[in-house]
Amino acid sequence: MSRYILLILGTTVFLWATSANEIIKKVEDNLNGKSLDMKISMIVHTKRTKRTMKLQSLSIGKTKSFMKVLYPKKDKGITFLKIENTMWQYVPKIERVIKIPASMMLQSWMGSDFTNDDLVRESSISDDYFQKLIFQNNDIYTIELLPKDESTVVWGKVIMNISKKYYLPVKVDYFDEDGELIRILYYKDIKKYGERFYPSYWEMLPQTKEKEGRKTIMTVQSAIFDKEIKSSYFTKRALKRYSK
Amino acid sequence: MKPYISIALKNIYNNKGRTIVTILLSSLSTAILVFITAFMDGEHKIMLKNAVELYPGYIQITNKDFRDNPSFDNLIENSTSLVEKVKENDNVSSTSQRFETFVLFSSDTKSVGAMIVGIEPENEKINSKLEQSLLKGKYLENKDKNFLYIGNELAKKLKIKVGDTISFVGTGADYSFCADNLIIKGIFQTGLFEFDSTSSFVNKKYFDEVFVSENLSTHIIIKPKDIDNAQFLSDEISKILPKELDSQSWKEFMKTLVEAMELDGIFGYITVGIFFIVIFFVILIYTLLSVYSRIKEIGILRAIGTKKREIFSMLLFESVVLSFISILIGGIIGAFLAYYFNINPIELGAEFEEQFKQYGLASTALPTDFNVFNILRDMLIMFILCVGSTLYPIVKVNSFKPVEAINHV
Hints:
The complex is a heterodimer.
Chain A: H1 2-32, E1 35-45, E2 50-60, E3 64-71, E4 79-83, E5 86-91, E6 96-100, H2 116-120, H3 125-128, E7 129-136, E8 140-147, E9 157-163, E10 168-175, E11 181-193, E12 196-206, E13 215-225, H4 236-241
Antiparallel strand pairs in A: 1-2, 1-13, 2-3, 3-4, 4-5, 5-6, 7-8, 8-9, 9-10, 10-11, 11-12, 12-13
Chain B: H1 3-14, H2 16-54, E1 59-63, E2 76-77, H3 79-87, E3 92-106, E4 111-119, H4 121-127, E5 134-137, E6 147-151, H5 152-158, E7 165-171, E8 177-188, H6 193-196, E9 199-203, H7 204-211, E10 216-217, E11 219-224, H8 230-240, E12 245-249, H9 250-253, H10 255-292, H11 295-303, H12 308-343, E13 346-347, H13 353-358, E14 365-366, H14 372-398, H15 402-407
Parallel strand pairs in B: 4-9, 6-8
Antiparallel strand pairs in B: 1-11, 1-12, 2-10, 3-4, 3-7, 3-11, 5-8, 6-9, 7-8, 13-14
Helix pairs in contact in B: 1-12, 2-10, 2-12, 2-14, 10-14, 12-14
């Protein structure tokens, strides 16, 4: 008898595990689409200053991504390109392409509270983490993500709250290897873009003491999913070519 | 005049050989002590002075949290008006504002991370040794745009020379992305490897445009009129600062160096101490011999009724007079040397240059420290030492019975 109970228990755990993985895959698909052409505006709040940036982001799935800064004038024309695991930045003022090494992926992106990694989505939550469903109610799934040994991600743990209705994240907590909460990302204001739903308001709140008083808000100005994006955007030459 | 005093004076006068040798020995030791102290103190002073004047300055104003967390959240705001306020203090000789940050330099072949500082070129001429450290090219000017003044070792790493162009990327005071091309205007060498391989400077006016740091700085440097007054002035200035700012004198922010110098001083004194133990015994043995040679004389004095106490007083008086003359002569010679080499520093020559650089000394000229208090202190030490070393022989010779003493061979 006890053997059956064990078997049933085992299967449930297994089912939960697979469903967590399925949920995450669905979320990733909803966030990335087949392709995505987005215009974003970003407001960076620090203790002393408030700064607005506007950018355009083009991506195909989660492997290729191209970004261009449109505003302010000082930064206009700075472009970013990510192919597979490599990222480059082009700075028109010094006419130089800078390769951003893997060690810099968790550095701040253009002084915001988002990292390079966040912006170009280098690490993949479905491939680089073990997922485990730890809680669910009528509205949300709570999934715990622990890094796989072989993956290069730097977060020690990620807790993701996912809306059951849209299969989109609502709130994500990022912990370091010591289990300390480093930052919280809120996704709000889900809107319909074409056939898809997408959160149009992202709020990043750093939790560490040295980043007191800081936050970054990203709002989606426009988003076009699944349209054909020219493959010429995803070459190193594009960095300079589309900078203008 | 008590009889033993006149006998003592006669003894000193009549035994010229003994007197001269004693005085020579003691005065030479005194002169050496005075000079060594002056030399050691002088060395430490010049090291500290060089280290302070090279770049850090005598007094620094920073945000209280900046030293622990040098982020752009902990800056000095409204720094120009603050400088005006600081200048109202009569003891302030000059000030300069600085904005330090780290950027990635990249030349055609190399990329290196280094410090870049926005400085006020004219003010910095007074507050640091940057201008004097010029090696090639020219120092910065107040109207300069994108011109860079760079450390020699850093220039070598980047493989650039005067006139070349170099790019940098960094973060502005508002955390925005900054990048520009800079033309190398001058290359400096302070001799401090660490500093020369990580530092570079641009005009703050230009810096403020690129790094969005108008009216902001990380440090305000103050030079007091009287440099010995730095600590006092720093405390004074602290009182007028906004509560998030803090003023520190070099003794506080260069604590490690000050402590290292103190430790070095202690080792110096240990060496000197050993030297004195030797001197003490030399004088002791010499006095012992000279007193023993007079043992017959002392025996006769005792035999004709001189009291033990009187003989003790007589011998001690001799010793006091001789010691006093010695330390006076030695003190004057030592003081003269200390004074002379204070004005005309000792030039140790090029072969010591490498060693000196490790201690942050750009020049090999070492002025001694002429300090009257120290000289008097050393003279007093020598006096006690000389008199002290004669006590044992005097007591010893006094313990003989008169008959024994007269018959002593």
